[in-house]
Amino acid sequence: MSQVSAPVSTTVIAGDIAGATAYSAAVIEGFERVLAAARGLGFVTQEPGRPNLTLTLAPDQELALPLDTLASTAASFDATASPLRLRLVLHFGVVFRTESPEGTSYVGSAIRSTQSVLRRSPATGGLRATAEFAAHAATIGNLPFRLQPCAEPAALDGLSRLVFGVAPGASPAGSGNGGVDAEFMAYAKRRLAQEIGPFANALVDRTVRSVTSTEQVVALLCNEIDNPAARKKFEDDLKRFANMRA
What we know:
alpha+beta, Alpha-Beta Plaits, eight-stranded mixed β-sheet, 8 helices
């Protein structure tokens, strides 16, 4: 029997290979080295037979070393597998830590959200971060990277590119909750709670701190709902409420 502990907020990183529909033995061998590096950083899951991974860091784990390690590993993979690229998406959110006889595993909306963003992000390499991760990074400070808006026209709203090295006096990207109506926030919490339960309040609060408009709030919160029909209904309800207050 597995025992599910209380939910925790932590960093989740999803990765796969961009730029190909088929993979040679050499590419798979190169990706095995990526997996080995990731397994040394936290809890890793992978779809059987596919060159992808989802890495869940411990809630209290510092970020500089894991991200530096992944950046170096990605650069090495890109150099040997060109023109293929390793792409990674960083997200910060809620997961449930599950204790089982086989060891610790993780389930929760942050993992699903990270995988969803990776699937929809531009098919190029590099490390990218969601708005939630940017907001989390901004609370830490003194991290060896900065976050820049993605240049690709197809990039998702709020998706940033992670660049190592911080200019003097600069700080990681992040923003307040300007532009988001308080009553809209309250409605979003009630409506999201109907879909995912009591953790909706924390998710809405975190999302609002990382964006500047209700449109961005709606887009990010929709990622927390797996069922397509329920997600569409949730999106329509929030947009309708926002339009009523416009």
